[in-house]
Design brief:
It contains one helix and four strands; from the N terminus they run E-E-E-E-H. With 60 residues, the protein is mainly beta. Strand 1 and strand 2 form a beta hairpin.
Length: 60
């Protein structure tokens, strides 16, 4: 099983989930998904193209 890190800010709706491969951020309804291996600078939001990846995390 892959390790998953989860974080949530106390103030606001900022939630994040991170694995070795992916990082998902949900902030006030905006969803961002990054491939950390292919895009370590987190420049390209892949949420629309890779929704099935984020779909495994119930917070989405």
């Amino acid at each position: 099983m892959e390790a998953v890190n989860f974080s949530q800010e106390e103030e606001g709706e900022h939630v994040g989930v991170r694995t070795a491969e992916w990082k998902l951020v949900v902030n006030a309804g905006e969803k961002e998904l990054y491939s950390l291996r292919k895009d370590p600078g987190e420049k390209v939001n892949l949420y629309r193209e890779e929704r099935e990846v984020a779909g495994g995390w119930k917070a989405c």
